[in-house]
Amino acid sequence: xxxxxxxxxxxxxxLYGLDERKIAVRLRAKKGDxxxxxxxxxxxxxxxxxxxxxxxxxxxxxxxxxxxxFEVELSVEYTRLCYCFWLSDGVESCYYYxxxxxxxxxEDRNQYFILxxxxxxxxxxxxxxxxxxxxxxxxxxxxxxxxxxxxxDPKVFxxxxxxxxxxxxxxxxxxxxxxxxxxxxxxxNCLYLTPIFTATxxxxxxxxxYFTIDPCFGDxxxxxxxxRKAHERGIKVILDGVFNHCGPYFFAFQDVLTRGEKSPYxxxxxxLNFPVAYGDPPNYEAFAxxxxxxxxxxxxxxxxxxxxxxxxxxxxxxxxxxxxxDVANEVDHYFWQSxxxxxxxxxxxxxxxxxxxxxxxxxxxxDEFDSTMNxxxxxxCREFFAEKTIGVSEFDARFHQLLMRYMRPIxxxxxxxxxxxxxxxxxxxxxxxxxxxxxxxxxxxxxxxIPSIFYGDEAGLTGFTEKDYRQPMRWDRVDSxxxxxxxxxxxxxxxxxxxxxxxxxxFLLDEAKNVYGFIRENSTEKVYVLLxxxxxxxxxxxxxxxxxxxxxxxxxxxxxxxxxxxxxKLPPVSGAVLL
Length: 579
Known about the structure:
By secondary structure, the chain is α+β, with helices and mostly antiparallel strands. It is about 25% helix and about 25% strand. The protein has an eight-stranded parallel β-sheet.
């Protein structure tokens, strides 16, 4: 038994409450090492000694390139637990508690792993609507100027901050409102808009006034109309919050530039040097060394309160449904914890998404964000579907690694994107191969997590450079077979609850054929998903319930098992969704 690979910690994601009486417990071990794992638990305040222990078997739920992961979910009659694990590799067995290994259980209950108290305040409760979401990300400048229309209209407006507002292409909020029927028909039920507050640049990631809408896009009344009409169609609206930094015309930065050390706002910024040199490079902390994006000092109480007021203002004023939070991992944890408490106090079902490109476990313990942008998902899909640089075994192992990063309720809410406003279009990574593109989209719509579509993905937009992947929407392409495919797979996602909240289990892995299959299952549905990532037709056989037909919902085909085995022929680079 390779003991140095065994790991557990008595807090998320290895121990967490699902409700006030139910917990989830996880243990990690070397891949292929353990044959059996049992969970022992007892009442930490039992009136007798040693503590009477109950036991439950743990199930191996995932394997990545290095480790196996065992889990158990159970209802417990105690709010305070002492617990341990019994491990066996078939040759050696031992108890594991207190991060050490023993041959017997202890008499001293304090030597066990301990759950001090299963507190309701520390149980993560996701927004009820979020697991059903299909997000559509809109870059407002590039989306629409009318109903299924884009007429380029570059603009420059002087604004009230002393700067100017620029539009590169001229898309606006009325253009989004005009296309709500199209988005609803596509199956979208959540919009994420990149920044819309008054700013200088066309992308608006240099905010000058967080309490006004940029005149290139409309005004506060336009936003209210957008949210109201979206809600009438069952569509939520999430805005982009740029709280790590501001723009050069933000009132506090202008005051610092004018008054220097005498400015009452000198502590609003991170590591200012005086005199402030607004040049290249700047002599103050800024996002990515860009002088037009001075870094805010979110550790300062006044800054913290100002930005929290922004977060709650637009919920109260326009009834928005949440925030995507820019450069979230460069902001202090206390700010995000405070921000969450304030926002959830106003709207408990508000959804908070952090922009974190890597692993985000410290931000996803239930007290900061509900989700993060899952760029690791995008990278894995690019390697497997688009570039074909990895096979099904590595794809399976690395995806299981992604699933094990966080508590399962948060894993199911990860914002699974294939591309965004910051990376090349996925169809470009596929070199225009629509079959590979559509297979990746199928996986995106059926895997755990919330699918996120960047505007125009469904119209086949391409681009490796920022200018190209932020190009205007091609409304002349939305009656295409690709758009119809998106509508179909989004419909499956919305229709099948197992695709929204079901467990994930791989049931087929054929490295030679490059075929992969997994099951999404909840208490009411069991959905089989098959992916043929090879360039050849492949015949696959797998066990199924005797006598029960399986329906391929993607292609409207039915299969009857031969005894207890189903046989399916998959064309090159294609998939199936079987119920």
